[in-house]
Amino acid sequence: MIFDTDIFIWVQRGNQKAAKLISHEKERYLSIFSYLELLQSAKNKQQHEYTKDFVSSFGFIVLPLTENIGHRALIYIEEYALSHGLRAGDAIIAATAAENSMALVSGNAKHFKPIKDLKLKVFKP
Fold it and tell me: Of 1, 7, 75, 114, whose CB has the highest number of CB atoms within 10 Å?
């Protein structure tokens, strides 16, 4: 399962439901874009290190941006940006899940719901 960026934010805020969701999953994946978002949102070096340690200690596999993922994200933007407000980062995260035939878990259902070929698992904090 691929985890959207918001799941990590819920864990950082102390949400036990999000923490359980991650800890109960045997195979944990993360889009490179989510990893970039998490590192970018760090306020200082300590938070930077915390994020890197969290990803590493829970055994997350960071999935790279491939040509196919980029192409699929472009198609998603063409199809859903104007009609549903899909942003580039969410398109990349969704494309990463779809290209790897994995479900994406996110609390931001409205960001991903219009994407027909995406297996979405909605997280409710």
Answer: 7
What are the b/e assignments for 55-79, b being 16+ CB within 10 Å? beeeebeebeeeeebeebbeebbee
- pLDDT band of residue 52 (cuts 50, 70, 90) is very high
Nearest 5°: phi and psi at 66?
-110, 170
Whole-angstrom distance, CA of residue 10 vs CA of residue 75: 29
Shortest CA distance to 37 belongs to which of 88, 100, 110, 84?
Answer: 88
**CATH number of the domain enclosing 96:** 3.40.50.1010
Amino acid of residue 43? K
The pTM of the full predicted model, rounded to 2 decimals, is: 0.93
Distance CA 109, CA 90 (A): 11
